[in-house]
Amino acid sequence: MCGRFSLTVNEAELNEFFETSGGDAPYVARYNCAPTQMLAVITNEKPRQLSYFKWGLIPGWAKDPSTGHKMINARAETLSEKPSYKTALRTRRCLVPADAFYEWRQNGDKIPYRIFLKNSRLFAFAGLWDRWRAPDGSEISSFTIITTGANEFMQAIHNRMPVILNREDEKLWLGSNNAGELLELLKPYPGEMDAFPVSKLVNSPANDFPEVMVPVK
Question: Is 152 a catalytic residue?
Fold first, then answer.
């Protein structure tokens, strides 16, 4: 699964990397992104802009927004079968910018690790988004991060991982209308990764500061 990540680069670097031109809200570096928070995404609807959506997908047909608490991740293997994701896969896809993610290794105790790419400061998770309308007419835009089986590196930490798109596949993920082609992108990341253990400060979403990223023995 993927329940925490970070996005700590400055806004200029983020915009240059993803070829965006700013967002619909002020950008703030985030060291401990957590579910229910409003976080930066790049949607197929507005591929040249950073949008800020709530983490935890709320399908348009949901009776209330609490549904999103259970939908922070979507399994790649069953996307085309589940009503919650089937339509979104076809029409509402997004990139979720990040520079690392956190996962907990079970070793008698749960030890948090910060995991990142060796060859790039930034990358994007494959995501889906939706828009939910409340009875009073207000709207909540939300997203989920797609997960898949762990690659060889991640297997030492956890048996699943978020789908990290290759650079050349990011535009394809946003722009393709071919479901088969899209599903082919949702595989374990093939490139080199690295990781180190961090403080259990990261366990609390309230701790959103640089100290959560510091390596510990």
Answer: no
